[in-house]
Amino acid sequence: MKRISLIWLLLPAVLLLAAFIVMPTFDLIRASIFDPDFTFKHFQRLVERGVYIDVMWRTVRVSLIVAVICTIVGYPVAMFINLQPKKRQVALLFLILIPMWMSVLIRTFAWIVVLGREGLINDLMIGLGMTDGPVQMLYTSGTVITAMVQIMLPIQIITCYSAMTEIDLDLMRAARVLGARRWQALTRVYLPLSYDGTLTGLVIVFMMSMGFFITPALLGGRQDMMIANLIEFQVQHLNWSFAAAIGIVLLVLTVSMILLLRWTGRFAFRRLLNVGR
Amino acid sequence: MRVMQTSRMLAVYFWAMVVYLIFPILIVLPVSFSDNELLRFPPTAFSLRWYQSYFNDPVWVDATLISFRVAVVSMVISTTAGTLAALAINAAPKRLAGPLTYGATLPIVIPHIFIALGVFILAIRSGLTDNEMMLALAHAAVAMPFVVLITSAAIRQIDPTIARAARVLGAGPLRAFRVATLPPLIPAIVAAAIFAFFVSFDELIIAQFLMKGSETLPMRIWADLRLDFNPTVAAVSTLLIVVTSLAMGVAETLRRRAARTLAP
């Protein structure tokens, strides 16, 4: 196609991204270092106060925990779907895709109904005589992670599954025919071939977890505040420049952690399988 | 054909995970029909009072209408811009296709809170806070990558010789596009539009920052969950769960059908 018409086709998308993604990003950078004159005071404040360091470190830690749990828990689910007959795979995928597209707000609310003081679990436990009064489950870190894993899991499963559909299952059969045990065929054939997609899933879940806002705010206590909550808090208190500085740190942290995860992931893979030397 | 024997344990594990994913969502449904003020489970008696309180409360109804308006505008913009971009990406020289796809799908990797903050500062500078069009455009930017990904996948499956045949038979480029390229893409475009609609309809943070005077539905739910907890939220959630499931079922079916029928 002619170059001119290509540019016309791209124009609406370019304008949209330029106005609502690229320009605001530059605005954010500017707001974080000019107040009104050039200054690094917002970044300084961020690294000098222990509270803020805590929030940042917690965000990275929680996101990493969620990503790792999703990977371990999701991998067998994706594998199970991939090993089913084609027709059945489609039906099973629906069970994963429908919750994936459900609003995060509603999925978080659902956890309040399940785990609240008058919720299902407490009701069951009291009914069974396992406890005398309601157990406090909301506003704890464990609940935040349980819910975040549930919200992110479909994404990990789908990413993993897409990678697995590329695997030629005849290779597994060949391995079995040649005398490999089931777990050997799994770890020597299936796992290496699905490794890259699994790592991609882990990175995506980590990245999305870093920006989580709704779930820690509704299910966590003060001790569970993540970077996005801190940003919202600062905006409500009209500290826009400081909020902008936190936003930039969030983006930089996310990108550098993604690079680190990709790099260590590849490295671990090579060491694990002794390949690529 | 069964490719590999999967152990029964793996099957049990799979269904346990499905329960973990879906069960908490399903629990909301019975609570919405409760007659009790508290989010108590199981409900003590059946009633529709929370549905009444949703439909009779102008605050809830207005919030729903605003969200609907914003989502429709955002859907039209992101679907148009995203589909055109996907067509361009697939027609572009090979070496440009990769960078263009990365560029067009960029917003996926940026946290919403970051976009929200940026758009908010932009809106303050330009005096456009509390503007529904501004919100719709911001949502469109966030939803567009999904449109590009879904329609690109469908465009790649199309046989380009059909459009070429149309050209050879005397059709102009626009007509060739309309009669040969577009029709097989419709299911994918509709699927993309449905996804785009819900990206906007469910979005909270950007709206929260941008809107001050008026409220979208997620903002209303959010405010309710933070302040006076009552089962009206459960009724709204139930309606949303049903509507989203149906729409996503349609969208996924269309997307799959598009991928299947277009495959050579």
TrEMBL record, chain B:
InterPro entries: MetI-like, MetI-like_sf. It comes from the Bacteria. It is a multi-pass membrane protein. The keyword Transmembrane helix applies. GO terms for cellular component: plasma membrane. GO terms for biological process: transmembrane transport. It is found in: Cell inner membrane; Cell membrane. Residues 64-252 form the ABC transmembrane type-1 domain. The chain crosses the membrane at residues 12-33, 66-88, 100-124, 136-155, 185-211, 231-251. SUPFAM superfamilies: MetI-like (SSF161098). Keywords: Cell inner membrane, Cell membrane, Membrane, Transmembrane, Transmembrane helix, Transport. Pfam families: BPD_transp_1 (PF00528). Belongs to the binding-protein-dependent transport system permease family. PANTHER family: INNER MEMBRANE ABC TRANSPORTER PERMEASE PROTEIN YDCV (PTHR43357:SF4). This is ABC transporter permease.
